[in-house]
Amino acid sequence: MPSDRTALPEHGRPAADLLTELSRLREADLPVRGGHVTAYVYDTGREAVHDLAATAFQEMLEVNCLDPTAFPSIVALERRIVSAVADKLGGGTGIFTSGGTESIMLAVKGARDARPVAGRPRIVLPATAHPAFHKAAHYLGLDVDHIPVDGDFRAEPAAVAAAITPDTVLVVASAPSYPQGVMDPVEEIAAIAASAGVLCHVDACVGGWVLPWLRDLGRPVPPFDLSVPGVTSISCDLHKYGYAPKGASVVLFADEAVRRAAYFASAEWPGYTVINAGVQSSKSAGPLGAAWATLSAVGAQGYRDLAATAMDTAERFIAGVAGIPGLRVLGDPAVPLVAVASDDPELDVFVLADEARARGWFFQPQLAYQGVPPNLHFTLTGVSDVGALLSALADAAKAARAAGPADVPADLLAALAELDLDSLDDAGFTGLLAAVGVELDGGGPEMAVVNTVLNGLPPATREALLVRFLSALYAG
Fold first, then answer.
1. Domain 300-403 class?
2. How many Cβ atoms are within 10 Å of 325's Cβ, its own excluded?
3. What's the pTM value of the predicted model, to 2 decimals?
4. CATH topology for 54-295?
5. Which of 228, 377, 394, 468 pairs with 222 at a CA distance of 20 to 30 A?
6. DSSP per-residue letters across 290-354
7. Average pLDDT estimate for 415-435
8. Is 266 exposed, middle or buried (0-12, 13-18, 19+ CB in 10 A)?
């Protein structure tokens, strides 16, 4: 692939040239407006709100969140944001973070440090819990106890109870889980955790800023937040259905002592005092300013309207999927997240995703896991054009059925499963990819081949291959 490695120019380049180059580099990016990308981005359809957020971001761009005594504006803004979120999610006290992963990292750290155990701390995770919990456990030195989900993709309370040990410091439930958008039985899981004297975190990163507004509208939303007895922390991303620019999230704690346990302080050096509420030290206050501006500009009624429109969109999409031969929705989504699988062996969802991409749409592939079939994920908002989306899905399904499943050499999976990745440097791995038709510059086969290969491998092998892929991609 062409190298992007360059030395700095001897003399600075004109601003117009640099902005032109940025525009050129973004030509291959997925669009962030318009609803044709069903993952990663959230669009209100209100350009004035997006423009305001960009202006607020720029206003706070150079303010450093490292020292709240030097920049009291960050304290004022964080208090306003956290209190607004707490008002809708059952109270508590919290921390503004860069995203769901950092919020989850702090929830895990708070649980680990607030309730020390004699052995190695453990965390109980449903199969559908976000990988950020695995990342937190890996970084913070916890072991993970996996529990199954039922036929509706909900965590099984009995399995939670059976998994708790004297070394368990945290139990997790999702509201909802990302893959299928379904709610775990939070009340039952939190009660089990409380009876065992264990903290319980609710991952509402994706649902936390849409469920309360749906509840306001009279829709049936089961209890899930800090008002539920036994729920001790909850995470909510504002850069998802809060529509703020990334990265903006909040983690709330029922007990301020657990929040303090999430902090980090160090006096073991002769330099400036180090005290961090989050994982990062120096960071721009741009996302903080943009999140506050977005929340304030949209307002409560605006969020009710956006939630109603997004959920209506999801329900019309679900009804439309039922009319496309070979496709079905997984589970009963509680928020505007929908997973679509295929019952037709000749209709490969990975090929379908490629056909949709060729038609200007991005449908996010999800690999098979513990009995959940491969599927396509759709994050829907009010700007999603249901008619156009269903038409694109139906056309892509028809084309995918005609094309048939992805053609993967029979011996490739076995070869990859037995491959000694440690024996290859990044250049060697790039050469291996090229030998099977995968080019890192975007050429080669469609993604259906890659996804089919990954889908046929165990998770540990998938992870190892993805790490090597990422390393080779950035090696240039």
1. alpha beta
2. 12
3. 0.92
4. Aspartate Aminotransferase; domain 2 (3.40.640)
5. 377
6. HHHHHHHHHHHHHHHHHHHHHHHHHHHHHHHHTTSTTEEE-S--SSSEEEEEE--TT--HHHHHH
7. 78
8. exposed
